[in-house]
């Protein structure tokens, strides 16, 4: 890099911008990949993703929130313990701060429903009380995510959400 030129960097920038559609394509492939993960739950992780996003959409959430709901567990493809931060960092340049936080801290909110069974603190969400994004994170966890394991729920298909994913990931808004 120490011998690179402005012209070379303009080529790299132009090529990167032109290749942006691969980002949403890759993320949609990751959601499909969640179909291989069940890990003892009553639905596989792709069904869980579709159901979470469908519940968000039917509850009137905006497009960034719906897409974040669809992608919130894609980190499980790589590592379950820290999966919230993986999805949150993927989303960060493309969504507003409260949506990033909704995903980054979602396990602290979900813990209310099962941490006691694992010897962990089910009140971890309380450490975020007072944050501007707290109501959204609570809505996500309590009304969409934790409910989205119903094998009989009529979820939308991945194709339904594809245009939304393409729009949200069309252009980064921040680093
Ligand atoms: Fe989830």
Would you write up a description of this structure?
With 175 residues, the chain is mainly α. It is 54% helix and 0% strand. The chain has helices at 6-18, 21-33, 45-58, 63-71, 83-91, 97-104, 106-110, 134-145, 158-168. Helix 3 (45-58) crosses helix 8 (134-145). The longest helix is centred in the first third of the chain and has 14 residues, at 45-58. The chain is globular and about 55 Å long. The two termini are 21 Å apart. The mean pLDDT is 97. Residues 48, 52, 72-73, 145 line the site of fe (ii) ion. The site of fe (ii) ion (FE2) has 5 residues, from helix 3.
Topology overview:
Layout: H1 6-18, H2 21-33, H3 45-58, H4 63-71, H5 83-91, H6 97-104, H7 106-110, H8 134-145, H9 158-168
Helix pairs in contact: 2-9, 3-4, 3-8, 4-9, 5-6, 6-8
The structure holds fe (ii) ion.
N→C terminal distance: 21 Å
> Which stretches of 5+ consecutive residues score pLDDT under 50?
none
Q: Mean of residue pLDDT? A: 97
Order of H and E elements: HHHHHHHHH
**Spatial shape:** globular
Helices, by number, come to 9
- Using only CA atoms, what is the Rg? 17 Å
Chemical compounds bound to the protein: fe (ii) ion
Summarize the structure.
With 175 residues, the chain is mainly alpha-helical.
Annotation keywords:
single chain; 175 residues; 9 helices; 54% helix; 0% strand; globular
């Amino acid at each position: 890099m120490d011998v690179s030129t402005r012209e070379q960097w303009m080529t790299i920038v132009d090529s990167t911008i032109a290749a942006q559609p691969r980002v949403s394509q890759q993320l949609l492939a990751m959601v499909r990949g969640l179909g291989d993960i069940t890990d003892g739950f009553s639905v596989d992780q792709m069904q869980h993703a579709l159901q979470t996003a469908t519940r968000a959409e039917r509850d009137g959430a905006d497009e960034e929130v719906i897409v974040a709901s669809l992608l919130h567990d894609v980190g499980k493809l790589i590592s379950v313990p820290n999966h919230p931060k993986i999805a949150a960092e993927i989303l960060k340049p493309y969504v507003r701060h409260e949506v990033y936080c909704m995903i980054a801290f979602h396990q602290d909110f979900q813990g209310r429903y099962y941490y006691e069974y694992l010897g962990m603190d089910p009140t971890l969400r309380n450490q975020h009380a007072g944050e501007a994004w707290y109501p959204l994170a609570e809505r996500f966890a309590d009304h969409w995510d934790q409910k989205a394991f119903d094998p009989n729920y009529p979820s939308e298909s991945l194709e339904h959400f594809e245009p939304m994913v393409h729009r949200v990931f069309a252009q980064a808004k921040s680093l």
